[in-house]
Structure formats: structure tokens, C-alpha cells
Amino acid sequence: MTSLVDFHCHLDLYSNYEEVFKEAERNKIYTLAVTTTPRAWEKNLELTKDCRFVRPALGLHPQVIDTNIDRELRLFEAKIKYARYIGEVGLDGRLKNLAEQKRVFRKIAQLCALYGNKCLSIHAVRATNEVLGILNEAKVYDNCIVVLHWFTGSKTEAVRALDSGCYFSINNSMAKTSRGRDIIRLLPINRILTETDGPFIRDEAGNPLQPFGVRDCIESIASIKDVEANRLIAQVLFNLNQIVS
Fold it and tell me: FRET pair for 44, CA 20 to 30 Å: which of 31, 53, 60, 207?
């Protein structure tokens, strides 16, 4: 069976996180273990040192920006040279400290462009154009790959992101809204990845989704795009290989 892809999952935030790590590896699900702080990345790096299918991402989430942000940013800068994957980073326009978020994200974008060969999983809630502008300004597109996680922007913003070379990681919650389905229809199949965003997204029984939950996401996207599920699974894996190669 072709392996599945969960390109955005907070593995370290599950109550039984060590078991979830092992389950993703056992099920051969290519999983990007995003983090919210650089310190969490260090823990994930240790947990994944012998993994084939799970990779840790160095993160600094916009929702954790506070009075200690410069300390976290210095730690992020010290670690980025060792990290292939960056996430979760970005902007959240729902928060009042957007100017401070932009300062931090601009620095992250500059570091990514400086070192190059980074793959970013990006949070862009009510701030898609600002995110894309900062990435363009820092020349991140020149030598890095950008994946927009759980895209909630407009069709116009989606087209701008596609024109910039972005990929999109889609979860089941996105596939359940009319706006999300419209975006999924718009996206070419060769720019799509799957994600769970677990443990924040839950299944119908109320349990946090684990990486194997991308099976449901595959079915939803396949129905929306009117393609066979097996074809979509193969395409998503091909897209992942294009990103990491």
C-alpha cells in the first residue's frame, strides 16, 4: 500500500505523544511533527532520531509571541541551521499583536532565505497577503519550499500563493466548509498535501485525530476533486517527494 502523508501534526502535544510517534512510524505515515517553540523542536529531534517516516519541524507559532519572544527568537536562530523543516510559523490576524508577529516572522523568513533548502509549514489566518508579501520580500521562494497549512484565505489569495509556487496542506475540517471545498476545487492536484493538525482537530467521536486520520481527508478531497482515492494518495506522495528532493 502506498504510504500516506500527514504534513502538519503536533505530535508532541498529545497526552500519549510517545505512542503517537511510534504509531505514525509503525503505520509508515510520512508525518511532519510541527512545533510551537524551538525548545519543543529539541524534544522532537530526540524522539525522531531513529525514525524513517516522522520528521521534526522547528517552530515559533504566532500565538506564543509574548514578552519572552526575543529569547525564543535567538534560540530559533541558533537552531535553524540544523533544521530542514520549519513550522509552525506565520501570522494570525485575529490577534492584536500583529505588528510584533510581523517583526518575528520577517526575521524567520530572512533566516530561511539565508540558509536555504528549508521547507516551511505556515500559519496564515486572516493575514495571507501579509505572509506572502514577507516571504516575497525575504526572497524565500528563491531557495525554499512554502506549504500553507489549513488555508482559510480567499480564492484571489490562493491564486497569488499558487503563482508564487506554494503548496497547500489540507485537513478534514477544511473539506467540511463550503469555502474550504471551493478552495480545494481551485487547487491543482500537484500542489496538494494532506494533514490532520492533530490533536486540535477531532474525529466524530471527539477523539484527537492521529496521523492515520488522513485516510478520511483523502476520501474527502478525492470526492471534491472527483478523482480516485488511490490516485490521490499516489499524487500526494509524489508531491511530497518533489518537495523534499
Answer: 207
pLDDT of the residue at 66:
83
Task: Give 68-71 contacts, CB < 8 A, sequence gap 24+.
Answer: 69/100, 69/104
CATH number, residue 51: 3.20.20.140
The pLDDT tens digits for 101-129 are 999 999 999 999 999 999 999 999 999 99
The residue among 33, 66, 27, 60 whose CA lies nearest residue 49 is: 33
Q: What is the dihedral sign for C-alpha 183, 185, 188, 194?
A: positive
Q: Which three cell numbers stand for residue 44?
A: 522532537
* pTM of the predicted model over 0.90: yes
- Cell numbers at 181, concatenated: 471545498
Domain count, the chain: 1
Residue-number span of the structural domain to which 194 is assigned = 5-244
